[in-house]
């Protein structure tokens, strides 16, 4: 069930196959049946993971040609920046949006810029 939760973007048929395999596993009454059903369930879970990862990779590939924004970057630099300014706005550089209802979006954007 964890595979279904973590890889919910797998194809429906692949998810259904895992669910059905888990139901067979639950209904087993002998050790031999349980071993076979467990192997089938593990294989179905692997198929769900592989399908979801392939789908995610296809999305990245499809967007690569149209995405002009950088990806990746230095996560440590982003987190360092965010921790540095979490309680003390960097308003000298970015301005102060608190009088307009808050600075959350500006703060998140600053962290992404720090990331690169």
Summary, kept brief:
This protein has 116 residues and is mainly α. It has helices spanning 2-6, 12-27, 31-64, 75-85, 91-94, 104-115. Helix content is 71%, strand content 0%.
Any overview of this molecule?
- By secondary structure, the chain is an all-alpha fold.
- The chain contains 6 helices and no strands.
- It has helices spanning 2-6, 12-27, 31-64, 75-85, 91-94, 104-115.
- Helix 2 packs antiparallel against helix 3 and helix 4 packs antiparallel against helix 6.
- It is elongated, with a radius of gyration of 23 Å.
- The mean pLDDT is 85.
What keywords describe this structure?
6 helices; mainly alpha
Category from helices, strands and their pairing: mainly alpha
The largest sheet is: none
Number of strands: 0
Indicate the low-confidence ranges by residue numbers.
none
Q: State the helicity in percent bands.
A: over 70%
The backbone outline, from C-alpha atoms, is: elongated
Mean pLDDT: 85
Radius of gyration: 23 Å
Order of helical and strand elements: HHHHHH
Terminal CA distance reads 37 Å
Put simply, the count of helices is 6
Strand content: under 5%
Itemize the secondary structure elements and their pairings:
Blueprint: H1 2-6, H2 12-27, H3 31-64, H4 75-85, H5 91-94, H6 104-115
